Amino acid sequence: MLVVGVTGAMNELSTPLFSRFLATEVADAVAARKGQRPEHAERVPVDRAVDATRQARPDMTIVAVTYPGNSFGTAHHYMVWLQGDAPLTRRITFPVMVDAATGQVSAIVPMPWYGTMIQVSRPLHFGDYGGLPLKFIWALLDLVAIAILATGLYLWVSKQRRGEKWRPRSCPPPPATMVASEE
What we know:
Layout: H1 2-12, H2 14-30, H3 46-56, E1 61-66, E2 77-83, E3 93-99, E4 105-108, H4 113-126, H5 132-162, H6 176-182
Antiparallel strand pairs: 1-2, 2-3, 3-4
Helix pairs in contact: 1-4
C-alpha cells in the first residue's frame, strides 16, 4: 500500500513538475527566440521535424510529436518525444526540440531527475513492470487491503450497534461511586 501511495502521489505531482521542466530546462533552448512572434505560416512540415529527429537520435523510438503552440511545448518548436529500447529507457521519454521555421534540431533536452522518477514510478504504480505475475501479486495485495478495510469497517459498525463508546485501553472504567453520584 505504501508503494502504491507514494507512486500515486508522484503521479499527482507530474503536472506541476512538467510545467517546471518546461519553465527551466526547455526555456534555455527557447531563449534564442524569446520575444519573436511565431509565424505559423512558415512552419515546415512535421515530416521534416521527424526526419531531423531520426538523424539526430537513430537509436531511439519516436512516440509522439507535439506541434508549436501546444501546452506541452513551445510556440516555435515541434517537440518530438523519444524513448529508448532498453527495459529501463523504454519507460523514460524526453523531447527533441525541432525549430518549426527551419526544421533543424534546436536541442535534445534530457529529462531531469524528478521527471525520470515520475516516469519510472508509473508502471510500478499500475503493476506494469513484471508482466502478468506482478499484476497477480498487485491484485492479491489489493484484495488484502480491501479485506483489512472491510473488517475494520465491520468491527466499527458492530461496536456502534451495541452502543459501546470508544475508550482508550489504558483508562480503567470509572469507579462505581462516581457513576452513582452522577445519577
